[in-house]
Amino acid sequence: MSGVSVEELVAVTRARLGGLARRVVPPGPLVRAAVLVPIVDRGEAHLVFAKRTDRVGHHAGQISFPGGRVDPGDADDLAAALREAQEEVGLAPAAVEPLGLLDDTETFATQFVITPWVGLVRGPVVWQPDGEEIEKVIEVPVAALLDRGSFRVERWERDGVARDIYFYDYQDETIWGATARILKQYLDLVGGA
Questions:
Q1: Residue 70: which of 82, 79, 80 has the closest Cα?
Q2: Which of 47, 62, 122, 160 is deepest in the core (most CB within 10 A)?
């Protein structure tokens, strides 16, 4: 599949997120978190992921979108996602143009509910993984993620409940878990474009 232009992706993202009746998980026992689904222009559209170090308490070594827990000082979910992205990978909040929200997504193992914001990163950016939580930043072409060969589903059982678990493989990295569910929702939304 040929590359996906950022202009095309942004237009489709805006249009489809604008019309999305999104799933909202009401406040409750789950810990609130927010992530940024950053789009960067590398001649074609890429999505940005952060690979977590083996030292973090939750999701060690996994690939996620930049983001984390919503703190009491955060004005809203977007503010939390932008603050965390700056702390984790050095992305200045002013460089992000928010495009809209995807569905709230729960993690099954760790009791979080994640609110994902899709955002376009404007201008040049130099990633600065913090080294403590984040080992490295990974940029993946959207066209590679839309390629059917990158996606697979496995059926896993946990606490007597069988669930489909999604995986996206890119080079020697694997995206799975809640991040893969957020990614699949986004790619399903824009993939027909």
A1: 80
A2: 47
List pLDDT tens digits, range 58-70: 656 789 999 999 9
pLDDT at 159 over 90: no
Write down the mean pLDDT value for the chain.
91
Superfamily of domain 6-142: Nucleoside Triphosphate Pyrophosphohydrolase (3.90.79.10)
Show me where the domains of the chain are located: 6-142
Question: Residues 129-146: what's their mean pLDDT?
Answer: 92
Q: What is the pTM of this model?
A: 0.92
C-alpha 187/C-alpha 139 separation (Å) is 16
pLDDT for residue 29 is more than 90: no
